[in-house]
Amino acid sequence: MATLWFRADQRLVTDTAEVGRELGAIGVTYERWGTTKMPANLSSRALGDAEKQAVLAAFAPDIARRSAQCGYKTADVVTLYPDTPNLDVMLAKFDKKHGHTDDEVRFVVQGRGVFTLFPEGGPVIDAELHPGDFITVPKDFTHHFVLCADRQITAIRLFTDVGGWVAHYRD
Ligand SMILES: [Fe+2]
To answer: What pLDDT score was predicted for residue 124?
Structure first.
C-alpha cells in the first residue's frame, strides 16, 4: 500500500485512508484497487502480450469507471525491469521535475515506484506506490518519478491522448 513521506517535517503516512486524504488535498487522486483481482500466473518481471491483456481484462471495470469519470480514451500496460533495454535512458526522462499536458494515470501491478510531488505552495511529498495502488497526477502538476532499489515496475496506464505524456521540464 502507498506510503507518503513529507520531506519538510519528515512525516511518514502509511494509513491508506490518510494517504487518500493527503493526496486529495493537493488534487492528486489516490485509490486502492487492491491485488485480489490480479491474474495469479503473471511472470515475475517482463509480461508478454497475453499477460498484459489479462491484466487489462482483470481491471476492466475499474478502468472503465475512471475513464468514464475523467475522459480517458486508451489503456495499456508498461513493464520495466533491470534488463529492459535502455532502462536508464528511459528513466532519465522522468527523474527531473516536469509536468504533462495530460493526466499521468497509473495502477501498479508489480514492483514499486516513487512519485515526488511538488504542489504549488505546499510541502514536497514522496509518494511510494506498491501493487494495488492507483494514482492520478493531474495535468500540469509538477512531479518526478523514480524506481526503487529493485528497479522494476509493471503498471496500467490510462491516457486521454498518448501524446500528452511528453515531459515538459520545469528547471
Ligand atoms: Fe511524469
So the answer is: 98
**Domain holding 87: CATH number?**
2.60.120.10
- What's the total number of domains in the chain? 1
Q: Which pLDDT belongs to residue 47?
A: 86
* Residue 169 counted as domain residue: no
The residue type of 66 is R
Would you state the torsion angle of the CA atoms of residues 14, 16, 18, 22, taken in this order, to the nearest 10 degrees? 90
Domain that holds residue 104: 3-164
Kindly state whether residue 170 falls inside one of the protein's structural domains. Answer: no
Ligand 1 centroid, distance to 40 Cα (angstroms): 29
pLDDT given for residue 44 in this prediction: 66
pTM of the model: 0.94
| Residue ranges of the chain with per-residue pLDDT less than 70 | 43-44, 164
**Rounded distance from Cα 141 to ligand 1 centre (Å):** 9
What cell numbers appear for 67 in the block?
475513464
Ligand 1 centroid – CA 142 distance (Å): 8
Any idea how long the chain is? 171
Distance 55 CA to ligand 1 centre (A): 22
In a domain, 171, yes or no: no
Distance 145 CA to ligand 1 centre (A): 6
Q: Spell out the residues 6+ positions from residue 62 whose beta carbon is closer than 8 angstroms to its own.
A: 33, 107, 134
In a domain, 7, yes or no: yes
Position 43 scores a pLDDT of 64
